[in-house]
Amino acid sequence: MLETGLAFGGDYTPEQWPEEVWAQDIALMRQAGVNLVSLGMFNWALLEPQPGRYTFEWLDRVLDLLHAAGIRVDLGTPSAAPPPWFARLHPGARLVDRAGHALGQGGRQSFCPNSPEYAAASANIADQLGRRYGDHPALSLWHVHNEFAGVNPHCYCDTCAQAFRRWLRAKHGDLAALNAAWGTAFWGQRYGDWAEIEPPRLAPTAVNPAQQLDYLRFSSDTHLANFRRERDVLRGYSPGVPITTNFMIANCKWLDYWKWAAEVDIVANDHYLASEREDRHVELAMCADLTRSLAGGGSWLLMEHSTSAVNWQPRNIAKRPGELARNSMAHVARGADGVLFFQWRASRFGAEKFHSAMLPQAGTGTRIWREVTDLGARLAGLGGLRGTRVAADVAVVWDWEAWWALELEWRPSQDVTFRERVEAYYARLWEAHLTVDFVHPEAGLGRYPLVVVPSLYLTTPATAKNLEAYVTGGGTLLVSYFSGIVDANDTVPGGPYPGALRDLLGVTVEEFLPLRAGERVTLSDGSAADVWAEDVHPAGAETVLSYVDGPAPAGPAVTRNARGRGAAWYVSTRLGGADLARLLERVYADAGLSARPALPATVELVRRPPYVVAINHGTAPAEVRGATVAAGAVLVLRDEP
Fold first, then answer.
1. Whole-number Å distance between alpha carbons of 491 and 474
2. Which of 193, 196, 452, 555 is deepest in the core (most CB within 10 A)?
3. What is the pLDDT of residues 45-57, one digit of tens each?
4. Pairing outcome for strands 507-512 and 603-608
5. How many whole angstroms separate alpha carbon 141 and alpha carbon 244?
6. Residues 632 and 322: beta-carbon distance below 8 Å
7. pLDDT computed for residue 401 by the predictor
8. Number of C-beta neighbours around residue 56 at 10 A
9. Torsion angle, CA of 224/225/228/230, rounded to 10 degrees?
10. Separation of alpha carbons 305 and 342, rounded Å
């Protein structure tokens, strides 16, 4: 990244424009305050137009022009878009869907991630780039690939089947262990030879969930191996230059980013608003907090976001005046040391020609351009934020494997999803002006007065032990329904639900009681809930709220179990909005978190000592620490005690 200050810029695609435009671009970049651009992500066909023939001269000129202007480069490897000749020469490397159809070319990531031909070709182009540019003075950061698994998270070809079997041998050791882990006694699925095992291709009915879960792990590991291969090639040419890739926290379910974060030198993320959501700024904050958490609480890089509308949502809503700055500063408030956009200059052709840019089709006489240059100037004056750490109040447990397992087929209710509960709890914490760190289920928790577990269907014994130690050591834990249900193999442990968390929560659940579409239940404090209820029986816990009606009238709905020096709360139904906020007020008090800023719920307040960032998403001015934050504005203050 940059040696000093905050990074500002975006994806630069000079190959889409005549060479005489390049000088104009660089002059405008300097005017806007751009100091870092991403370059080269989709240039494989231009850099290697035929196998083994390279044409780097145009890229040499671009890098030299940028360097002369004082603009640093995040140089990408183009492995997300193999050239047409690759597909022609290696038809077996095409991506195959779950139904067995080989998919066509003409887009990006249209390759099998396990293809040995792809592995060799992508490593070679990375080697060529590293050899030529590893010591170029403009180089600030290497950027491997682009949005791994964005459109090719899983392939089901025969090459993948062979790789899956090798992965299974390494994990399970022998077929006896695999058969036990997968529960193949069910439906007569016992395997007697490794060659009998296939990827979980489309079948007449639900495929073994443990097999599917292992395939999702295998696929995430495959993409990570592809990243490591290119990373290690580049590191050999420029050992002092950091190497990253762009995560997709908002949109990518299929990569276990806890594993990935340990493999990059700088955590970087792409974030695009779900533009039709009224609470889109809250979802943005959640993804920024999760990105920072992947970075171990340290700084990270916003690799891509948009100046206004994107082009791939059902309805691509333009950002309103000031929203560009609010979005950008919210990422900075939550730990980003740089703000980059896709893209610098709006494309005139191709699939993303209607995607917004720093320099729009309408040019420099536009509101977007004025807001871009204003943001560049503002970030240039905030270099003191670089390297500072966000002060968090609460931890929320997030686990990709639990997400995968929860949303396989044949669960008790299709309305129970991972992101929904996480976002419901996060939104209430955001409105209460509590800043969240996300944590792996087995991470250290002792510094947090409150830990929230919104959704942890898959819970390992190590996780249960970790949460137990946290509570007995004095922490306050809140667990939402349908957590603790299965182990890492999607197997229900012995005894009643909630399995691994039963003793910690001090309850047993005899039966899940999912609700019909539109059905609601009432709790003893007047709260209304939907989607889910349970037949809960206290086994040491006290009842905090009861069901008034529904399938479990008079039964416990919310419980609290004193354990050691702490307490574990359990919420057995889906509360939302004001009802969930009211319950959380009781939990905050239990955790000692009752003293919070008296601010409107529309004001976002994040401490990044020695600074505090206040963002007013409302329509009226707000007073924050003796200063006025105008409607729609952002204010950065010194964080005085």
1. 31
2. 452
3. 999 999 999 999 9
4. unpaired
5. 8
6. yes
7. 98
8. 16
9. -110
10. 6
pTM score = 0.97
Second CATH level (architecture) for the domain 7-89+116-154+240-385: Alpha-Beta Barrel (3.20)
DSSP 416: -
Q: Is 442 a catalytic residue?
A: no
Q: Which among 158, 163, 154 is positioned nearest to 220, based on CA atoms?
A: 154
**pLDDT value of position 251:** 83
Please give the structure tokens belonging to residue 16: 């889409």
Q: Supply the DSSP symbol for 359.
A: B
Can you give the pLDDT at residue 517? 98
List the domain boundaries for the chain.
7-89+116-154+240-385, 394-591, 603-638
CB burial of residue 239 (10 Å; 0-12, 13-18, 19+): exposed
Cα–Cα distance measured from residue 519 to residue 505, given in angstroms and rounded to the nearest whole number: 27
Residue 496 has a pLDDT of 97
- Is 230 annotated as catalytic? no
The parts of the chain modelled with pLDDT lower than 70 are 641
The answer to whether domain 394-591 has CATH 3.30.450.20 is: no
Q: Which of 147, 371, 423, 431 is catalytic?
A: 147
| SS3 letters across 71-130 | CEEEEECCCCCCCHHHHHHCHHHCCECCCCCECCCCCCCCCCCCCHHHHHHHHHHHHHHH
Catalytic residue among 48, 230, 283, 304: 304
Structure tokens at 239: 């050992």
Calpha distance 609→596 (Å, rounded): 17
Whether 25 contacts 14, CB under 8 Å: yes
Render pLDDT for 258-300 as a digit per residue (tens, 0 to 9): 999 999 999 999 999 999 999 999 999 999 999 999 999 999 9
